[in-house]
Amino acid sequence: MPPPARPAWPLTDGAAVRDELLAAYADPSRGYHDSVHLAEVVGRVDELADAGVAFDRLPVLLAAWFHDAVYDGERDAEERSAAWAEEALPALVGDDVVAEVARLVRLTETHRPADDDANGCVLSDADLGILAAPAERYAAYVAAVRAEYDHLDDATFAAGRRAVLDDLLAKPRLFHTPYAVEQWEAAARANVAAELG
Length: 197
Prior knowledge:
single chain, mainly alpha, Hypothetical protein af1432, globular
């Protein structure tokens, strides 16, 4: 399957910000959280919109662009990504959009939006949609995540990965929008269970 095309930048200006973000995602030290991941997340946001899910497109799309802007394996990467959005966006969008983008980026640390948080539910579902990928793409995703943590020995990585997956499976549902629950939930749980097995 060919990699997805570069996603459309959701603003009419801000090309310098866009290019800085694209450069960050293209960093060769990244494994999974790279340009393909960015394109897939934006594509899933569009898929949810096309399926009739109601949400505020501009802040969600901008949050998709910023959600892994900083990714280096450290625990505060989401916070630093949100801070980048708070620094870069005020010249391009209103304060309310900046605040919402930053909130959404921070939410991707836990992927636990409130049920009535339409924007958070869409971004969380789009980000976790990889869990429902076909077997070949899912295997490539797992390998790429492992590559991002190649500084860890296998036992340490396996324990950390199991903790992340167990935490996800402990949620009543992996996904929050009705479309994602219907289309992605069963496949995602099967993929995660197979990986844990």
